[in-house]
């Protein structure tokens, strides 16, 4: 770990809100200083609940909800499913699940099977709402999304789409690499071209790194998440040949890409870039926490509070059923490194905010 991250939490937290990173002519020293303050703020996640405190009570009738996922092999979606089962149980609702296995032709089939169950509401997880526009419109019931668009709130025929702001996540990951490299990062970015939310994050990583005059964007690699194990070793080989020692950092949009770098076929190309460091703009899975703790390959992640977001999805559907507006709640990006990983669920190797969100939602629901 570079010394630039030592004591970062103590750095000028009183700086207040920071300007967007769009000042291409900003001096390198000032850029790094602002990045330091921004990351300090992102590492000090507040434990006080800042989400909704009022809303409709749960109806007496148990609602039937269908979760339609892009691919249950994605560990983040697995975690969301677990959280939804927990939240639905607390609400007294019935939850069913359909998966599309990242196959376009499975989308219509999943919707058809879902609608055959006569649900009261649908949740799309990781599935681009634009790709199923006709199905959403024909469903004629409330549909909420998680990472179903590059935009948050009501969009693309969704009652609301929730998640951490992809711009916030992308900026945070990019600035962390700037600090870890002492402002000299040579970055390869890996994104999932099949998900608009992931593309929005990687676009922000690119734009933020470009604002660092002493850093460089070496490449933006588009690799479908479910092809990571197959394609990451070749990507590592190609990047090592093309960029050599200039390649200091890799920023991925999901920790599963770094999982793929730990396989045996990645050992040889990684040996060619011994000083290359990785971090993730998203996910925050158990394997990522373990790598960060052991200082092996990965030094940081910008995880999402997936279990908390599962509770929010149930709450948003309840608002839709009650003909109320969505809460528009979006938590700030949270940066995890070895320095702060013991907090907010880190001891159990995942991000679960210590802000009492379960009790807060139960209060709203009258449970």
Structure notes:
- The chain is of the alpha/beta class and 367 residues long.
- 39% of the residues lie in helices and 15% in strands.
- It has twelve helices and eleven strands.
- The protein has a six-stranded mixed sheet with strand order 2-1-3-4-6-5, with helices on both faces. Strands 8-7-9-10-11 form a five-stranded parallel sheet, with helices on both faces.
- β3, α4 and β4 form a beta-alpha-beta unit.
- It is globular.
- The N and C termini lie far apart (46 Å).
Instruction: Figure out the total of helices.
Output: 12
Q: What structural class do the secondary elements suggest?
A: alpha/beta
Helix content: 25-40%
Going across the biggest sheet, name each strand in turn: 2-1-3-4-6-5
| Biggest pleated-sheet summary | 6 strands, mixed
Unreliable spans are 1-25
Q: Approximately what portion of the residues adopt beta-strand conformation?
A: 5-15%
Radius of gyration: 20 Å
Number of strands: 11
């Amino acid at each position: 770990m570079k010394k630039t991250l030592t004591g970062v939490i103590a750095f000028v937290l009183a700086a207040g809100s920071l300007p967007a990173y769009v000042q291409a002519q900003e001096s390198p020293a000032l850029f790094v200083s602002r990045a330091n303050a921004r990351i300090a703020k992102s590492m000090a996640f507040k434990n006080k609940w800042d989400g909704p405190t009022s809303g409709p009570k749960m109806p007496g009738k148990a609602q039937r909800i269908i979760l339609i996922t892009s691919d249950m092999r994605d560990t983040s979606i697995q975690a969301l499913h677990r959280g939804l089962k927990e939240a639905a149980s607390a609400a007294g609702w019935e939850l069913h699940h359909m998966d599309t296995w990242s196959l376009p032709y499975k989308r219509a089939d999943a919707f058809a099977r879902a609608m055959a169950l006569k649900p009261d509401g649908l949740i799309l997880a990781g599935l681009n709402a634009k790709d199923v526009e006709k199905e959403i419109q024909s469903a004629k019931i409330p549909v909420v999304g998680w990472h179903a668009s590059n935009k948050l709130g009501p969009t693309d025929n969704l009652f609301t789409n929730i998640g951490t702001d992809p711009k916030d996540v992308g900026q945070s990951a990019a600035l962390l690499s700037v600090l870890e490299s002492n402002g000299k990062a040579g970055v390869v970015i890996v994104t999932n071209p099949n998900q608009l939310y992931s593309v929005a994050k990687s676009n922000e990583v690119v734009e933020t790194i470009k604002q660092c005059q002493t850093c460089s964007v070496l490449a933006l690699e588009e690799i479908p998440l479910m092809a990571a194990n197959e394609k990451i070793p070749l990507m590592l080989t190609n990047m090592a040949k093309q960029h050599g020692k200039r390649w200091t950092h890799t920023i991925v949009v999901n920790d599963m890409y770094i999982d793929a770098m730990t396989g045996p076929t990645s050992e040889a190309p990684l040996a060619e870039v011994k000083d290359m460091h990785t971090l993730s703009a998203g996910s925050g899975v158990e394997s990522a926490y373990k790598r960060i703790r052991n200082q092996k390959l990965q030094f940081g992640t910008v995880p999402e509070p997936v279990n908390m977001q599962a509770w929010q999805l149930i709450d948003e559907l309840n608002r839709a059923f009650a003909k109320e507006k969505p809460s528009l709640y979006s938590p700030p990006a949270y940066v995890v490194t070895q320095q702060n990983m013991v907090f907010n669920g880190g001891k159990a190797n995942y991000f679960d905010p210590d802000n009492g969100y379960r009790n807060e939602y139960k209060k709203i629901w009258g449970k």
